[in-house]
Amino acid sequence: MINQNLDSLKKDYGVKKIGVFGSFVNGKPGKNSDIDILVEFLKPVSFFEFIEVEDFLSKILKRKVDLATKNALKPAIKKDILKEVVYV
After folding, report:
1. Pairing of strands 35-41, 65-68
2. Among 34, 55, 66, 80, which one carries the catalytic annotation?
3. Are the CB atoms for 73 and 67 separated by under 8 Å?
């Protein structure tokens, strides 16, 4: 579903790179699991623009999305996430 909306994400929201990590990548999502998504933007975005992208993704994926950027990842887990992420 992200693939089908990649052009819109790039054009309308300035997304440079986007990938999935967490339970949906390692095959262990629960019934109520959110989808962990790592995003990189072409230029800095405001908090409201960030939330707009998160809402757009939640809507198209029909599930809660937890959106993150590389800079926002906690140092203790950053390395593992960057190894695990599957870019679209």
Report:
1. parallel
2. 34
3. no
Does the pTM exceed 0.85? Answer: yes
List for the chain the helix, strand, coil content (%; round to 5): 50, 25, 30
Looking at this protein, which amino acid is placed at residue 64? Answer: K
Question: For residue 56, what pLDDT is reported?
Answer: 98
Q: Which domain holds residue 77?
A: 3-87
- Give me the catalytic one of 36, 55, 66, 80: 36
Number of domains making up the chain: 1
Task: State yes or no: is 55 an active-site residue.
Answer: no
What CATH number is attached to the domain comprising 18? 3.30.460.10
Residue 66 is among the residues annotated as catalytic for this protein: no
